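Could you please review the protein record set out just below?
***
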Amino acid sequence: MSSIVDKGKQIVEEILEVYPKKAKKDRTKHFEIADEELVNCGTCSIKSNMKSRPGVMTARGCAYAGSKGVVWGPIKDMVHISHGPIGCGQYSWGTRRNYANGVLGIDNFTAMQITSNFQEKDIVFGGDKKLEVICREIKEMFPLAKGISVQSECPVGLIGDDIGAVAKKMTEELGIPVIPVRCEGFRGVSQSLGHHIANDAIRDFLMGRRELKESGPYDVSIIGDYNIGGDAWASRILLEEMGLRVIAQWSGDGTINELGIAHKSKLNLIHCHRSMNYMCTTMEQEYGIPWMEYNFFGPTKTMESLRAIAARFDETIQEKCEQVIAQYMPQMEAVIRKYRPRLEGKKVMLLIGGLRARHTIGAYEDLGMEIVATGYEFAHKDDYEKTFPDVKEGTILYDDPTAYELEELAQRLNIDLMGAGVKEKYVYHKMGIPFRQMHSWDYSGPYHGFDGFKIFARDMDMTINSPVWSLLPSRQTAEVPV
């Protein structure tokens, strides 16, 4: 075993030493150091998709966050009701930056927050009647809304409100789909179950229920792209430039109609495997639609993905694919020439919800940066098996790490950049460590595709090389014996 792997094991061992014996034994199972065997074969023993240990600070969200905040919220021509107390709805309001075309309040409702605002009397007597009133008010206030989803919060499940019966009644009365989503926050171990619950609701109420007027041989759907900062638009540009027709976006800048016609695709292209793989496998089983995962972070992975997509079609698409790559490569080379000298050798540590802990690795490496540690908030085993081939030997991987573990790792590894979510951001600022929000792009973006890489490179340079860090006292890094 190499010294770099031994060093990683020693760092993890020392960090976990502070825990009681039982807690240490449990947390040890959630760490893995990439060695030659893991990098080559991709198998792993890291424990994931398990309950967070009580008493620790976890960065995870809940099932409601996975459904309303990720899958359903970006569907622009529907009104999404946060059914329960005000707090969950307020927290999920506008935090994801899902861009969408349209006029707010007319045919685009993504930036609005509709809540049933449960009070004590609703907990005692139930909120079914209140939900009916809200649905009628929505229909009156927003007559062009194409549907309503009811996203249930924890109390709804605890008191036993029958949102399914209300949704059925309101669908018949209002003449638009009213879809119940039983995504109470206490369900499951993380927001990952919320994705699955949301997918099941799409399957049960919308999938395959609408028709596409004209089908073509190059029809594709973008699955699992939530258009953070315009990501889906940047991806769509490339797909259309190579001759494909995008008939549906699930669900960034997406519509209820697109959810109903995606079964007409010739190929489903999935970006966020964790949140939408259920839908791709369902459409494959029910409609025979093949699917593939793609990665549009950084020019290297974007080119690989474009060619892999083109290989699923005829020579016409393959030729156009090469033309698109040739068109953009001078721009990408110029970006790398500008920023790589400023970022070469910088050490990066990541904690991101779903796919980005592995998908963004190539973009950092295109700029000469090194991923020294990475992990997920709510990954499953297959996510880690897909990650190991993309990391280098000695990389530390972790599942659902505690705040303490992350801070200790950041100091001991002497990182130059931390990429995680807004909950972690200001902790690292106070530690004097440059930080980027890799859930919502820190008010920037897009980061996907060739156009997105220009912004990604600029943002990483701006963050790491900002003169503000020179105003902070030098941070002391722990000396770790080799």
